[in-house]
Specification:
The protein has 294 residues and is of the alpha/beta class. Helix content is 35%, strand content 25%. The protein starts with 8 loop residues before the first helix and ends in a 7-residue tail after the last strand. GO terms for molecular function: transferase activity.
């Protein structure tokens, strides 16, 4: 409770307003208050990178996180070292499209982003975010990328946790998948052959524990050195849900002539090579180039 010890100009106009504002900001993080403020209607936000997105009432992520994108800071710094204007980019597991939008801005009108998101509702949000950002250099496909061409079942979490949707069954504390959806799956080798794409400059993979299978479906591209740079995610809980060990992902890349690296944000450089991970959640980067020399 705010204690009124003495009414002074300093307390009235400086100290107490700061205390009230700090507590109000904490309250705004509460989902019910946010829904009341937004009248249960979607609103448009713009982050520090100039990327617009739709905030739905069910999304209780603090506004500061959505605008600052702090959780992407390391990934963005690494991407900036690997991606150039005019590049061909693949975003596997595009979710609602923040990274696709960011990559599209880097590569410009002469580049192209191919985004892949299999879940219908999330795919709708992806297309929506691309539309409000007026990005014409992004093509999106409602596909899962896998090591076989087939129909497979995706396990779905409630919409505010859609980034956890997976082919496996990860369990996050008390949260587990609540539904299933049948989706089409394709191999990158097949897709590139059909689309007559002979080189990928940067491949981003976020397949919630199934990154290994994305790579197995791209072995021809990898062995032919047709993927210059790539990123993949090591995430302990999704990996358990898929039955894959972290080292298996590194081994697939190594067998195709690629070395893997961490990115050190403090030193602003790639560190490695590394061939395994015990991280709870970490992005890694791989190439047939020596990334430590960049």
């Amino acid at each position: 409770m705010l204690t009124l010890k003495k009414i002074t100009p300093y307390n009235l106009f400086v100290k107490w307003p700061k205390i009230i504002w700090r507590r109000l900001k904490e309250k705004i993080k509460n989902s019910r208050l946010r829904m009341l403020l937004f009248h249960n209607q979607p609103v448009m936000l713009e982050d520090i990178y100039g990327i617009k997105s739709i905030l739905y009432p069910w999304d209780t992520t603090p506004l500061e996180k959505l605008i600052s994108r702090k959780i992407y800071r390391e990934e963005i710094a690494a991407i900036k070292k690997l991606v150039r204007a005019g590049d061909i980019i693949f975003d596997v597991g595009a979710n609602v499209g923040f990274i696709s939008c960011f990559l599209a801005k880097i590569i410009g009108k002469n580049g192209k982003v191919y985004g892949f998101e299999p879940v219908a509702e999330t795919f709708h949000e992806l297309k929506e975010n691309l539309a409000i950002n007026r990005l014409e250099n992004v093509l999106v496909y409602r596909l899962a990328i896998f090591n076989e061409k087939q129909s497979i079942m995706m396990n779905l979490f409630e919409q505010k946790y859609s980034s956890w949707n997976s082919l496996g069954k990860p369990k996050f504390k008390e949260l587990s998948p609540m539904a299933e959806e049948e989706v089409a799956a394709e191999m990158l080798d097949n897709f590139c052959q059909e689309q007559k794409i002979d080189k990928i400059n940067f491949l981003k993979i976020d397949a919630e524990g199934f990154d290994k299978y994305v790579l197995l479906g791209a072995e021809e591209l990898l062995r032919g050195k047709k993927i210059e740079y790539l990123s993949f995610e090591i995430s302990e809980i999704p990996l358990k849900g898929s039955g894959v060990k972290a080292k298996e992902i590194f081994d697939v890349l190594k067998s195709c002539g690629y070395q893997s690296y961490k990115f050190d944000l403090g030193q602003d450089k790639f560190v490695g090579p590394v061939d395994d991970s015990n991280e709870f959640l970490k992005n890694y980067y791989a190439s047939y180039h020596d990334l430590a020399k960049l």
